[in-house]
Specification:
This protein is α/β, with parallel strands linked by helices. It has 13 helices and 11 strands. The chain has an 11-stranded mixed beta sheet with strand order 3-2-1-4-11-10-5-6-9-7-8, sandwiched between helices. Strand 1, helix 1 and strand 2 (33-38) form a beta-alpha-beta unit. Helix 4 (79-88) packs parallel to helix 5, helix 6 (159-177) crosses helix 7 and helix 6 crosses helix 12. The longest helix has 26 residues, at 240-265.
């Protein structure tokens, strides 16, 4: 089997392109093949790059652009545009963007293109659930995780978008987590079906109806914020604005709590002795909660897989992002998701032309 090539946009990372290149080198040491797009001189001088890594000189970045669509159109030489084109042309099989989500989404939509039947791409991230599962919950093949989507691709969404996100997330849960019939919840401000905005109520009603006609997912209804990582669902669906806020809130709270525990463990001699005993367990929890261990979010809905890591990641996180993209390409995550959506009847129907509509009207006994 030929190892997939991962195209990586190195511009836009908080620690600079060299840190992304260092992450690519770590991934290459684990068998990844990488095509790096960024300032060649900086990337090549940062560290010795193995033969599995090819550098394409692309110093221009649009990662911080306020209007990524216009920037992408007017700046074809930008690193993210060139990286996306490499995927579209088949020189790479997956995309990793170290810069802004908006630039990655724009370049992906205009170059890689949406997959057939997809309304809008979505960012989906598997969130770890630390600790042992309660006795009432079965062990999961992929470990205790919940997939949250959308976490930033769409600030606004319609009912049909959220319904499709649910099936996309369920397909991802089957492929990545090994869950045969994923439980899907809809993020709201109450568990009752009538709670939430009009969008949430209408989406919940449609999901309940569709779930009753397919084995693709089990709809568990509305899920409140305190249950996102409680294990009541394998997939949580929401719009990109709410999902991004929820994700950043969870990351911030977890890191603050871990820092507070560390400070308390160093507050006195007695605390230091207790902290020494707890250190291995706390380190394990810290690693589970570390966003860099996850490698970033899957960009679903394009014809090829994308992975969007945090711009503040270190080389460890970027290495994980490259490896996640490579694995997704090897396992044909996009193709398997597309098949699952088609089998569930969750794809957008193709537009009807005027001639097709006229033929339908002629054949309809009511309008004939």
């Amino acid at each position: 089997m030929i190892t997939p090539v991962v195209a990586v946009d190195c511009n836009g990372a908080d620690l600079g392109p060299a840190e992304v290149a260092a992450g690519a080198r770590l991934a290459a040491e684990q068998g990844a093949r990488v095509l790096l797009f960024g300032p060649a001189e900086e990337l090549q001088s940062a560290s010795t790059l193995p033969q599995e890594i090819e550098v394409v000189d692309a110093p221009i970045s649009i990662a911080k652009s306020a209007d990524p669509v216009s920037a992408m159109r007017s700046t074809p030489e930008a690193s993210i545009v060139q990286a996306a084109k490499a995927v579209a042309e088949g020189r790479a099989q997956a995309l990793v963007c170290a810069g802004g989500t908006g630039a990655a989404l724009a370049a992906g939509l205009f170059n890689v293109k949406r997959a057939r039947g997809i309304y809008r791409p979505a960012l989906a991230i598997p969130l770890p659930i630390p600790g042992s599962p309660p006795a009432r919950q079965p062990a999961r093949p992929g470990g205790r995780s919940v997939i949250l989507l959308d976490v930033g691709a769409n600030a606004e969404a319609r009912r049909e978008h959220l319904v499709q996100f649910a099936f996309m997330g369920a397909a991802l849960a089957r492929t990545v987590l090994g869950v045969e019939r994923p439980r899907v919840g809809l993020l709201s401000n109450g568990e009752e079906a009538a709670r939430g905005s009009r969008l949430i109520v209408e989406t919940g009603a449609e999901l309940a109806a569709k779930a009753g006609r397919t084995d693709a997912l089990e709809f568990v209804g509305n899920v409140e914020g305190n249950d996102v990582v409680s294990g009541v669902a394998d997939v949580i669906v929401t719009d990109g604005l709410t999902g991004n806020i929820a994700l950043k809130l969870m990351e911030g709270v977890s890191q603050t709590l871990l820092s507070a525990v560390r400070d308390a463990a160093m507050a006195s001699t007695r605390a230091k002795l207790g902290g020494a005993l707890l250190r291995p367990a706390l380190r394990e929890v810290r690693d589970e909660l570390d966003p860099e261990e996850q490698g970033g979010a899957y960009l679903l809905g394009l014809r090829s897989l994308g992975v969007v890591p945090h711009g503040r990641f270190t080389r460890k996180g970027f290495a994980r992002a490259v490896l996640r993209a490579r694995r997704g390409a090897e396992e044909d995550l996009v193709g398997r998701t597309q098949i699952a959506l088609e089998q569930a009847g969750a794809l957008r129907a193709p537009p009807v032309s005027a001639s097709q509509l006229a033929c339908r009207r002629r054949d309809d006994p009511v309008t004939r």
